[in-house]
Amino acid sequence: MPRFIDSSPEPREPSLIGVLLVNLGTPQAPTAAAVRPYLRQFLSDPRVVEIPALFWQPILRGLILPLRSGASARKYASIWGKDGSPLRHWTEKQAKLVKGRLGMRHGQTLRVAYAMRYGEPSIAAALDALCEQGCERILLVPLYPQYAASTTATACDAVFARLARYRNQPALRTLRSFHDDAGYIDALAQQVRQHWQHEGRGEHLLMSFHGVPRFTWEKGDPYYLQCRQTAAALAQALGLPEGHHTLAFQSRFGRTEWLQPYTADTLVKLARSGVRELDVICPGFVADCLETLEEIALEGKQAFLNAGGRTLRYIPALNDSERWLDALIQLIERELAGWLTPAAASHGS
Ligand SMILES: C=CC1=C(C)c2cc3[nH]c(cc4nc(cc5[nH]c(cc1n2)c(C)c5CCC(=O)O)C(CCC(=O)O)=C4C)c(C)c3C=C
Ligand SMILES: [Fe+2]
Ligand SMILES: [Fe+2]
């Protein structure tokens, strides 16, 4: 690989804008052989596991990967659809819908692509393709409502690292977070109301976010604060009184303390405190994935029932819902503002 990626000297289509949607990534198949390289890439990211590689790599390769790959693959198998991984399916669909909607308004000037931070399609390949098509301005949209170094920042890192190899770099903007965006909160509230209307309403709403180690908050990561702000805004939008909603953090990994309260403990506590019918939403995931469909809708439900609960209804992620697409388009157009008008207008026709 050359130090710099040189583009050909002929002029291309003038100044297009590229929108790159990025989500976490997923294995190619629900098998140990496919989960292993995915987990290796994911858990070797120093933004995700903040232990010096010298200590961590032997543990990861000698212990974690051999033990976890098979177990994780079985979990993936339980949620794998006819379209493969739900996370990939929904992300691809979101990109297609964004492309269609933005295309109607700015088709001449915009290109839309999606990529995964770990696995395929890679950020490097998607970025190269956008620049090959003539995009001289790129908007990066990490699909994480709440900013975390382990998600948003590492997606940006991967884009910056690829651009570091370019001779002729595009201009770049990044969407930092949208945890308190009115359109996003409205889309979540609508998702809950629709669920209440069609599936019935539980006595209590649990809002479960993916956890991160507690020390990341102490070191300045705004993730904890932003999750609390999202939860408060959603409870307010739904008019939920105090005592009828709870915030918790799921998916703990490793031995260090993570953000509390833990979702697993909270499910048991709620059941023991007499809640019989529980609704659960995971506002930090804009696409359904292993962590929602398996950890909450299957495992979490079982834990709640075992502790005395009667029903746990999982409220699907925003996926391809109308209001979420509206909100996403609005977020993108707001970020693109100075680029689209009047500059885009002069290229458009
Ligand atoms: C939504 C935000 C996410 C944050 C923050 C996050 C932090 C984080 N995750 C791990 C470890 C694992 N996460 C895994 C799956 C997974 N994580 C997210 C999102 C966030 N992670 C998603 C969307 C998914 C699902 C992917 C899919 O294919 O559906 C996994 C893999 C599955 C497993 O083996 O359990 C691990 C491992 C850490 C350590 C971390 C913060 C430090
Ligand atoms: Fe995760
Ligand atoms: Fe998990």
UniProtKB/TrEMBL annotation:
GO molecular function: lyase activity
Residues given in the record as Fe(2+) binding sites: 210, 291
Gene3D superfamilies: 3.40.50.1400
Statement: the UniProt record of this protein carries the keyword Cytoplasm: yes
EC class: lyase
Keywords: Cytoplasm, Heme biosynthesis, Iron, Lyase, Metal-binding, Porphyrin biosynthesis
Metabolic or biological pathway: Porphyrin-containing compound metabolism; protoheme biosynthesis; protoheme from protoporphyrin-IX: step 1/1
Highest taxon in the source lineage: Bacteria
HAMAP family with a match to the protein in the record: Ferrochelatase (MF_00323)
Protein name listed in UniProt: Ferrochelatase
Organism encoding this protein: Chitiniphilus purpureus
Gene name as annotated: hemH
